[in-house]
Amino acid sequence: MTQPIQTYNYNWEDLKQDSKNLANKIWKRRFKFILAITKWGLIPSYLVANELWIKVVKTICLSSYKNKGLQWPMVHHKINWFMENIENPKDWLIIDDLSDTWYTLEYIKQEYPSVHTAVLLQKKTGWIKANFFAREVDNIWIKFPY
């Protein structure tokens, strides 16, 4: 008999506090731009950008889930004329809400090897780590408020 997966209900207050904590960990780096991983990285990206007074937030649309199951390879949804152009990697920070499957971070580090990454929640079991995270969590199911 399999044991049920432990669940944590991550609420809006957790989200706001972790975004502030993440911003406090990275403010000395003086990033100029944020690349938000859509769609769940948009809210933390906005909150961190607001804390750090970063005005330019762009998006990259990636998906590793399809019909509630994992999808590999990672799908990068590109618009015909638009590419996420990163000329000075040291000026950019890529943000997502969670690193759980590690597929997203693996893809990001392949596409943009010099760019720093940040997540609110970093699973302890991960073999690819974000450069910055607000909190490290056990391998539990996180229910976000959105």
Topology:
Elements: E1 7-9, H1 12-26, E2 33-38, H2 42-52, E3 56-66, E4 69-77, E5 92-99, H3 103-111, E6 116-123, E7 132-137, E8 141-143
Parallel strand pairs: 1-8, 2-3, 2-5, 5-6, 6-7
Antiparallel strand pairs: 3-4
Helix pairs in contact: 1-2
Instruction: Report, as a whole number of angstroms, the end-to-end distance.
Output: 32 Å
- Briefly note the CATH topology name of the domain at 30-76 and 89-143: Rossmann fold
Radius of gyration: 15 Å
User: Count of helical segments?
Assistant: 3
Order of helical and strand elements: EHEHEEEHEEE
Structural class: alpha/beta
Mean pLDDT: 84
Question: Any low-confidence stretches, pLDDT <50, length ≥5?
Answer: none
CATH-scheme architecture of the domain at 30-76 and 89-143:
3-Layer(aba) Sandwich
Major sheet description? 6 strands, mixed
Estimate percent helicity.
10-25%
Approximate shape: globular
Task: Briefly summarize what is shown.
With 146 residues, the protein is α/β, with parallel strands linked by helices. Helices cover 24% and strands 37% of the residues. The protein has a domain at 30-76 and 89-143: Rossmann fold.
Please give a structural write-up.
The chain is α/β, with parallel strands linked by helices and 146 residues long. The protein has a domain at 30-76 and 89-143: Rossmann fold (3-Layer(aba) Sandwich), CATH 3.40.50.2020. The chain has helices at 12-26, 42-52, 103-111, and strands spanning 7-9, 33-38, 56-66, 69-77, 92-99, 116-123, 132-137, 141-143. It starts with 6 loop residues before the first strand and ends with a strand. The mean pLDDT is 84.
